[in-house]
Automatic annotation (TrEMBL):
Residues 1-13 have a biased composition (Low complexity). Binds GTP saturably and exhibits a low intrinsic rate of GTP hydrolysis. It comes from Liparis tanakae (Tanaka's snailfish). This is GTP-binding protein REM 2. Belongs to the small GTPase superfamily. RGK family. The gene is CDH17_1. The chain holds residues 61 to 257 of 1048 of the full protein. It is found in: Cell membrane. It comes from the Eukaryota.
Length: 197
């Protein structure tokens, strides 16, 4: 499924040249500890097999992979971000301009990470000028039922306010993680088709 001809990650403006088959750049955003690395590992296939040949880890936590959504192939370049303790502003601005779409993660067991997701959503609106950039608010760690601090309805309401989709996931149980990626691709396709029309 890995096409070597598409292994070079283009640095030009994302999305504008969105032909079918060109990679979609999806950025993982969220506070530290919410599960971004776990998401990236599942995407890379490392959770299934020790050597994930079907995904090229290009360093800088970038992974490109072709997946099938609704019977049609889609190539996703996944960018995992992290928040350095110091001087994070610069890297973050870069991340916020790098994506065609964003998975905005928080942990349902950590209210501070939920508030952080709201802040990131606001910053994203500022730095990502393109209208209708697909964003999914992802409440991860829903397996930790007794440690839950953020209810499903709070997550859903927040997504409604911020005009984005919402899903709860458990990277630990591999629950809904692929659904989040598939939902992202569906939104990107809708946007592409709207643009083409
Ligand atoms: P990151 O800092 O956002 O990259 O977070 P990590 O992916 O490193 O996850 C932080 C910790 O949370 C690790 O110990 C993970 O194993 C754990 N973790 C991530 N996702 C889940 C989840 O869905 N459920 C549970 N129970 N633990 C999780």
């Amino acid at each position: 499924s890995w096409s070597s001809s598409e292994s070079v990650i283009s640095t030009d403006s994302a999305g504008d040249t969105a032909e079918p088959g060109s990679p979609y750049r999806v950025v993982l955003l969220g506070a530290s500890g919410v599960g971004k690395t776990a998401f990236a590992r599942i995407f890379a296939g490392a959770a299934d097999s020790m050597d994930s040949d079907d995904c090229e880890l290009c360093g800088d936590d970038v992974c490109e992979k072709e997946i099938e959504v609704d019977g049609e192939p889609a190539t996703i370049t996944l960018l995992d971000t992290w928040e350095a303790e110091t001087g994070r502003g610069c890297a973050q601005e870069h991340d916020m301009q790098a994506g065609d779409a964003y998975l905005l993660l928080y942990s349902v067991t950590d209210r501070a990470s939920f508030l952080r997701a709201s802040e990131l959503r606001i910053t994203l609106r500022r730095f990502s000028p393109a209208q209708h950039t697909p964003i999914i608010l992802v409440g991860n760690k829903c397996d930790l039922v007794r440690r839950r601090e953020v209810s499903v309805s709070e997550g859903r309401d927040c997504a409604a306010v911020f005009d984005c989709k919402f899903i709860e996931t458990s990277a630990a149980m591999q629950h809904n993680v692929w659904e989040a990626f598939h939902g992202m691709v569906r939104q990107l396709r809708l946007r592409r088709d709207t643009k083409a029309a």
